[in-house]
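Hallway conversation turned thread

IA: we were arguing at lunch whether anyone had actually written out NEBU protein end to end. Turns out nobody had. So, for the record, here is the sequence (244 residues) and right after it the structure tokens. Reply here if something looks off.
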Amino acid sequence: YTEAWDADKTSIHVMPDTPTILLAKANAANVSHKLYTQAWEEAKKKGYDMRADAIPIRSAKASREIASDYKYKQTHEKEKGHYIGCRSVQEDPKLSWAARAMALQNDRLYRKAWHDSKAQVHMPVDAMSVQAAKECQTLTLVSDVDYRQYLHQWTCLPDQNDVIQARKAYDLQSDNVYKSDLEWLRGIGWLTEGSVDVVKAKKAQELLNDRLYRTRPDEMKFTPITDAPDVVQAKINALQMSDV
């Protein structure tokens, strides 16, 4: 049964230009790593042509010089100290403006004129302020010596009415005359018994005395009632609780 099939299997011939075969060959070429790197391997076998004046080399050098800080500041360092159009610092407007701003900000230069002129004050003698100050001193507004003027001694007759009235007023205001009515009490002995403080202390002691405040039960005179309900009930309870 299978003999004919086995004989036919060895005699099958497929045409090489069929779409299936072509597709299989194309897929094999796309997947093949050897064919993918074949061009790169052949280029490596040929070697490298790297000259000094090659475009990539020149581009790399130009980029490095642009990025270099030394090359970036080389022109500025060469031009430093060379001012075009100004023969001196005073003729340069920017430098002049900077110097002027520095002078304005300097406190020492700002106060120099004031320090030079503060010790050279010339005030006339007849100036209004000087005259006003002198008058204030002479009018005892400031001077303590002129402000305190002791009164002179008056000479009055002893029998004048104003002198007699003044003496009476002085006697009334005098402390010695005010306390002269108590001189007779000086040296007299005095007992504290009957004084306000002693009486007040005794009253307070009586109020705080517990013996006088509370009455003892044994001192109270009373006659108990023998037939009272609570007494009768107590007697009955005592008899019921008695062991005898």
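OS: looked through it. The CA atoms of residues 122 and 143 lie 26 Å apart.
IA: good, adding that to the notes. The longest helix spans residues 19-31.
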